[in-house]
Amino acid sequence: MRLSLALLALLTAAAAAVAGAEEPSPGPPATATVQDCLACHGDAGLSLTLGTGETQGLHVDAAAYARSVHGSALNCTACHPGFQEQPHPTVNTANRAEFRAAFRSVCKTCHLEDDRKAHDGVHWQLLAAGDTRAPYCADCHTAHAIAPPARPRARISQTCAQCHPAVVAAYRGSVHGRALLDGNPDVPACTDCHRAHDIKDPRDRAWLLETPQLCGKCHGDPKLAAKYGMSPNVLGTYLSDFHGLTASLHGRKHADDARFTAVCVDCHGVHDIRSVKDPQSTVIRANLVRTCRKCHAGAGESFPAAWLSHYEPSPDKAPLVYGVRVFYRAFIPFVIGGLVLQMGLHLRRYRKER
């Protein structure tokens, strides 16, 4: 009897062990590796036909992804959660814009601050208004071949040229663009003036009125000025003349589409800025009258002589203006001081006579 009970217990335990081996307890789903995904997406011919008849490529260049900033840090499912399952989750494939929009919010998982800035930019405003041509993260950074930002800096203008070819062509011919292509690290690329994510609408006059401070970041830097033989007081001389004073005092009140004063880009150009030694420069003497006439239609040939440009009066440059300035710097305090002294003496005498 005892032998039978022992044998029964042994058989029961063996059956339980076999059952446990055949039906393991469910665990977490396996994480798909990059190589798992490339088994299909490494095929250069892999694509998807959208509802409009357009073809959306689904191929991922394995070498480009490996070289990217994400290649050694992230698996595919970090940006495509849920896609480790087969079949993949359903994605809106009505058209290319809807398909790409389905992945637009992925980047903010790690780059929330940049995403917030982008929502303040003109590109997001266009997207929100229904303009599907406006770019978002992957359009500028690419989806799988993301390189470190601004490496090389010349690549920035190449990216912007995808949507703004005419602007970039003009920039490449400018004093800034030519220097950048030659590897000069000191000149501005697109994002130095327009910023990277919170890009302002360049047609906004309020933003244009901020360009003197923008240009002053480089042209007011004493180290850069000394290195390239420029005046370090370009911004100061602008702000002290009638154009700069008007922009400073009345800019916020009249920040509309009407041009009421000239800022840097009105005289020097926007993307096609030339060296002051370039015959095509808009601010050399031969072309200056034509530049002034953009605002002052009736300007004569001698009109620019009333403007000191960005020079500061000195005994060598505009000596008459320099002399008048020195005179008034002494004369005005003398007059005011004399008036104060006279009033003081008068009050003293008045008190004594009382």
Textual characterization of the structure:
It is a single chain. With 354 residues, the protein is mainly α. The chain has helices spanning 2-22, 34-41, 62-67, 76-79, 96-101, 112-119, 122-128, 137-141, 154-160, 165-172, 175-181, 190-194, 205-208, 211-219, 222-228, 234-240, 242-250, 264-268, 285-292, 319-353; strands at residues 47-49, 55-57. The chain has a two-stranded antiparallel ribbon with strand order 1-2. It starts with a helix and ends with a helix. Mean pLDDT is 85; it is low at 1-30.
List its traits.
354 residues; 3 domains; two-stranded antiparallel ribbon
Layout of helices and strands:
Elements: H1 2-22, H2 34-41, E1 47-49, E2 55-57, H3 62-67, H4 76-79, H5 96-101, H6 112-119, H7 122-128, H8 137-141, H9 154-160, H10 165-172, H11 175-181, H12 190-194, H13 205-208, H14 211-219, H15 222-228, H16 234-240, H17 242-250, H18 264-268, H19 285-292, H20 319-353
Antiparallel strand pairs: 1-2
